[in-house]
Amino acid sequence: MEIRPSILRITVCSVFLLCSLIVSAQEHSDPRWITTWATSPSTLPPENSDYQSLNNQTLRLIVHTSVGGEAFRIRLSNYHGDEAINVGAVSVALQETNSIISSNSALSVTFNGQESINLARGAVVLSDVITADVPELSNLTVSIYLPEETGFLTAHALSNQTNYISELGNHTKSLSFPVQSQTSAWNLLTAIDVINNEDASTIAAVGDSITDGWGSSDSGNQRWPDHFARRIFNDSSINKFAIVNAGISGNRVTTESSPQFGQNLQARFERDVLALNKVTHMVLLEGINDIGMATMETGSPIEAGIIINGYRNIIARAHARGIKIIGATLTPFQDAIYYSEEGEKERQAVNEFIRNSGEFDGVIDFDAVVRDPSEPKRILPSYTEDNLHPNDTGYKAMADSIDLNLFR
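Request: output the structure for the sequence above.
Response:
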């Protein structure tokens, strides 16, 4: 989608130069705040000290909005950091192409009226409210200058989006970004909220790599939640929803393995879903890694009953917050790297619960959508490259299959 600089209109201060506002608690408590984009921190600190630390460099992160709004704020998080991090400057702009931003679109972001902020270890901070029109379904850049040695950087490691790390210096407002390296990680940034005047709420897509979009075109916004957002916005018969992605590649419902794959869903659910704004619905598609990865590690999959008890915990916690939870069936994985016949039996048992227990508020049968009719244990070959993750076509088929009445 082409993004025009004129879309992001300045409503205060001089044209194309936004003044950051020191806001009151009342502005932050405005009931119109809704999360338009979010990501779930994944990578935990490794057991050794072998990780990349930045010093006097700028990150340029590319994110894709769902709903638009008339003001925004960003959320920075140092959840997994091993020390406090000094953030020297932050700006938000419209992406032109790759690391280049649209001319005159860079807006300064402040924290308590200051350009810099110290992120304590484990801390989460909200920026000041920035008054500007944010376009829906568009790519923004968030540029973060880190003037000092950072230590371990909290990250969503596998974003299926190319992001950029600069040469030395503060390049938060540089049109042509001096790229030193590229990264798939979204560092420090965990959410963007907007003030939206429509009767909109948020759907959280919760899951593993199949929600995260692994196997989709890099930087193409071809994950199934992206396709679903476009479908919602193009259908005038249903209210708009913000669609946020709480998927983590490699994630599990009940257990953990590699630090790259984050905390289990039970541990991260409060942070990654319940802490977001105006979540009224969530789609849960997770459990295949509990089955497959456990088989690789121990020779046996996690039993379906353990996964189901994990679901019940998430269902109860969602319902306690008034959130409707839609269960999505686990997709086929025959000929995937961690397939086993024993694991297939557990997948079928999990799907039986999702379809027929009545404990979810609704069901999306992704299994039925993507499986090969002639070999139902496998994904249709035209929908996958690795027999586990859908491709762009498969992800679109998943999004197109969803019954919108689940969200009316």
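The mean pLDDT is 93.
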